[in-house]
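Subject: for your reference before the review

Hello V.,

The reviewers asked for a structural picture of the protein, and I figured it would be easier to keep everything in one thread rather than splitting it across files. Below is the amino acid sequence we used in the manuscript, unchanged from the supplementary table.
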Amino acid sequence: MIGRYTVENITASKARKSMKLPLDPTPPDIAAHRDAARALLREGKPAEALAAAERAHRAAPDDWEGWQILSACLLASQRAAEALSWIERILVERPGQPDALANRAIVRIRARDMAGALQDAEAALAAKPGLTHLWGTLGLLRQRSGDLRGAIDALRTGLAADPANVGMMVRLGEYLRQANRPIDAIALLERATALAADNVAAWTNLGVALQQAGQIDAAKAAYEQALARNPASAEIATNLGIIERGRGEWDMALLHFDQALAVKPELAEALWGKGAALIRLARLDEAEAHFHRAVALHPDSAEPRWSLGLIDLTRGDFETGWTRYEWRSKLPDFPSPRRNFAQPLWLGNAPIEGKSLLVHWEQGLGDTVQFCRYVPLLAACGARILFAPQTRLAPLMRGLDGDFELVGLDARARAFDYHVPLMSLPLALGTRVDTIPSGAAYLRADPDLVSAWMARIGQEGFRVGVSWQGSGTEQAGGRSFPLSLLERLAQIPGVRLISLQKGTGTEQLEDLPPGMSVETLGDDFDTRPGAFMDAAAVMAQCDLVISCDTAIAHLAGALGVPIWVALMHAPDWRWMLGREGCPWYPGMRLFRQTTRNDWASVFAAMARELAAMVGRPEELA
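And here is what came back from the structure prediction:
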């Protein structure tokens, strides 16, 4: 491979004899031709530069400075092998010559000999720190070797010598972002865009840094600037699609993903993004066809197969859906811990009678609340069950019936025969829609907390616990709703709305419509160790809970408390399609948007039902 051999055994005299070019019959002015070669190189004219360098060489064939200019021109002309021959000749004549080492570093980069290139760049700059352009190369080489801090230091040194070098700014901005310093990256990349407004890389990297810093509107604007300058970039269009997807703007996301796929039909991120947008737009048939095409294009990729599983589960096809859902473990960014155990994975494919089985949590708190129902069933298989939920949920899980041992994730050190992720249990136990274990409440609130909250809340009126916002992701995905939409319910005589909200979303309590009242439970609500302990006790005092699609809805269902859930037009897979009742929770009623973003009709229906329930239908006539 080019750049991986040495020439220590070649003498300088032999090299000269073998590499001389024919002498020009009329020797030119050597300095003038060398100056011309350098100027033409700076102007981006490598062919003309090479011609000038060759004329200079013919006049002075034994001058190593001429070899240096000649090798640089050959490099610029993409003739790396010939350039390397001259470079090696210089290094035989003048070992450690920094310009030659710098050029050899470039040759080695092109030959993918990154270790050799790094060695040459380090040596060249140690001997001649003024090789300003090489600091950028050194930064790249250090980053690729895993030395991100060293890469940042190299680029800072280079920029100190050449403060207007936009290329180094862009690269340094990217490395700062990789080092989780997006604010520093933003400042540098904004400077780069000010100096070079047409630099697409600067705008693109600025968008990525802004997105990492959570400045979504600014990130979108930066990507739009980049795309305006390079409309054919599938990658930039995909970045914009991802931004719009995060904002819940599914139509715009679809537009950008289609734009990307028109340029690069096999671009993976755009394929997955388009499919996700189609699902959110409730266009399941199109999404299914799209993901089948994605599987054909990327047979080994997990995303389209997992997404097909979501579609299957949404339609109630559990037999196929649970199997495809297992592809989640191969997703590159699936929000679930990766756990590697020496013991084998159990998916119902082996008898476990007399064996020990570790069931470990995955995904969110609501997922654990929903699927912990399977843990007691495993004991009926004759196995010893170790259950490791999230640490925050361990106190709540003590109210789960069944014969199992509650453990932490230090259970890795315990002896067990098999392990299984919690959300693989429906597959392992062969769950179909009509066999979902949903007969009775399977969690209990702490009795002492129930008594304490009973004294604080009292038993007056019709008590409705309300939760309107989940995580930021859920809000962007349309799963949350504005608290003000419950105004008509609050106006029904005798109805008390009691907030179950904690943290995000509570700011809406400060901006209620005139006359709307929502009771709060004080600063000590859900502050004790263990998630949802107070929430569960308060729910036990409620006649009804109304919630968006979040963990509170699952908790109410698991406790057997009557629960109404407001669902977006294209709901999460577990709520399936067209059902008013929920096979997962017998006490749950689903209120679905009939058209996208139409929450008003959902809460108008709830208000009518609640007025009838409390015997005041005339209030909403």
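For the response letter, the relevant points are probably these. Residues 1-27 have pLDDT under 50 and may be disordered. Strands lie at 356-360, 384-388, 405-406, 418-421, 462-467, 495-499, 544-547, 563-567, 581-582, 585-592.

Happy to draft the paragraph if you're swamped.

O.
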